[in-house]
Amino acid sequence: MKFLPVTTMPAIAAAILGLVCLPLSGCVPSGESHAESHSEAHSESHAEAPGEAHSEGGHHEHQIIVTSPVRKNVISTQEYVCQIHSCNHIEVRALEGGYLEAIGVKEGQAVKKGELMFKIVPTLYQAKLESEIAEARRMEIELKNARDLAKKGIVSPQEVALKEAELAKANAKVSLARAELNFTEIRAPFDGIVDRQLNQLGSLINEGDMLTTFSDNSLMWVYFNVPEARYLEYKAELDQKDSEVHNLKIELELANGKIFPQPGKIGAIEADFNNTTGNISFRADFENPTSLLRNGQTGTILIHRELKNVVVIPQRATFEILDKRYAYVVDKDNVVHQRDITIDTVLEDIFVIDKGLDKGDKIILEGIRQVRDGDKIEYEFQAPEKVLSDLKYHAE
Asked: Which of 51, 191, 320, 361 has an alpha carbon within 20 to 30 A of 37's alpha carbon?
């Protein structure tokens, strides 16, 4: 029997131990220290599942900011699409037929009242006038003879009265013929601007044909439609005894986005509502000294209405659930309460509150999604004046 040398026994023992170790414990690979392996295991045991809260109240990810409503005077602005018309805009038509003999104006020309605009060939009317004048003179001679004969007792007073009536009739025909002749001359009925000419020199004109349109643009009438609720607000302002005291300011925004330099005023309100749309037509009047506005233009009416001493909050301090709007109110114990609010007017970046909040309340401005009704919170308070100063709205 042969025995292995004693020097080979440790190597065989190490090999046997290695074979036993591998399936049982997943030994540390060669060259890796025990400390490194323990570190990795420790870090894995402390990894959290996604969405797991760190601790109670851990859903307050960011700092919650609280502010308060304020009472201020603010300007509410409503916009209405409008149509612009001249205060006087007429169609100039021929009263008599004939050839267009003269055109005394140009398109776009400013014309003074009484200036000659068009003239139609008056030959026939001139002849008729001369005929009627001659007839009237004949009747004057017959009347004179009848009066002389009446003085001598040759004719009766009734004969003289008959001649007087015939002379009056002849004079009336002269007046009519002169008026017809004047109808061939078309003159400006007021100061205005000539629009497009529809007939050229020498054209044959029939009675009633339109020659042009004529506009007085010194004052422009601007028409727009107002919903019933707004009508009641504006009417209350306009019905004040002193019309200069009301809080309505009327502006006209032109198609290029610029504001017309002249202020406007409400000139008229139609008598009836449109039952289909629920609107009523308003008319705003604007002086137009430079004739910038022309008949047929469009624009946007801006009605600025001052709301005095109203409760104002930022829009982002509210949230909506099923068509109702709410705010989170923080009580004296720092507990959050959901409160139903009613909006009176929507302005840019802010709400004017009708019901639900007042000046002394504390409301959550930032962090609304981090809290729930009944939560007790820690917060930072921001002065409402600072909050509102960053918003884009008009206030006094």
From this structure: 51
Write the CATH number of the domain with boundaries 92-213.
Answer: 2.40.50.100
Beta-strand relationship, 324-330 and 264-269: unpaired
> Rounded CA gap, 269 and 224, in Å?
10
In this structure, the strands spanning 279-287 and 264-269 are: antiparallel
Helices (H), 239-367: none
Half-sphere exposure of residue 76: CA atoms within 13 angstroms, side-chain side: 20
Structurally, at CATH architecture level, domain 78-86+216-307 sits in: Beta Barrel (2.40)
pTM: 0.63
Neighbour-count burial of 132, counting CB atoms closer than 10 A to its CB (0-12 exposed, 13-18 middle, 19+ buried): buried
CA distance 320 to 351: 13
What is the side-by-side order of every strand in the sheet holding 116-120? 185-187, 116-120, 98-103, 204-205
**pLDDT tens-digit readout, 264-284:** 999 999 999 998 999 999 999
Burial letters for 327-359: b for 16+ Cβ neighbours within 10 Å, e otherwise?
Answer: bbbbeeeeebeeeebeeebebeebbbbeebbee
- How far apart are alpha carbons 172 and 350 in whole angstroms? 75
Q: Which of 77, 67, 69, 72 is nearest to 310 (CA)?
A: 72
145: left (phi over 0), alpha (psi -120 to 50) or beta: alpha
CATH architecture of 64-74+309-389: Beta Barrel (2.40)
- pLDDT tens-place string over residues 288-343: 999 899 999 999 999 998 888 999 999 999 999 988 999 999 999 999 999 999 99
Nearest one of 183, 222, 207, 178 to 82, comparing CA atoms? 222
Q: Are 81 and 298 in contact (CB under 8 A)?
A: yes
**CA distance linking residue 185 with residue 122, whole number of Å:** 9
Domain layout of the chain by residue ranges = 64-74+309-389, 78-86+216-307, 92-213
Counting beta carbons within 10 angstroms of the beta carbon of residue 217, is it exposed (0 to 12), middle (13 to 18) or buried (19 or more)? buried
